[in-house]
Amino acid sequence: MTYKFDQFNVEITDPNISVVNVLDNISAKQCSVEVLLQTVDANFGVTLSGFTYTSDWTDEEVEIWTLTELQKYAV
Hints:
By secondary structure, the chain is an alpha+beta fold. Helix content is 16%, strand content 47%.
């Protein structure tokens, strides 16, 4: 899959995707997720915002949300 982000002047093709950090705003029950996209030639870090939860969240839920959210940047 290929991704394009406004802050990078390159298309990122077939990266390895890793969730690096989850920033949890417990009062708002929202998280931002810092993601690393790694290719043979370069590493790209992006922050995705908008993950929400009702009482708690799991790593698996964050990873699934991240992969779904990245679809917005697929080209």
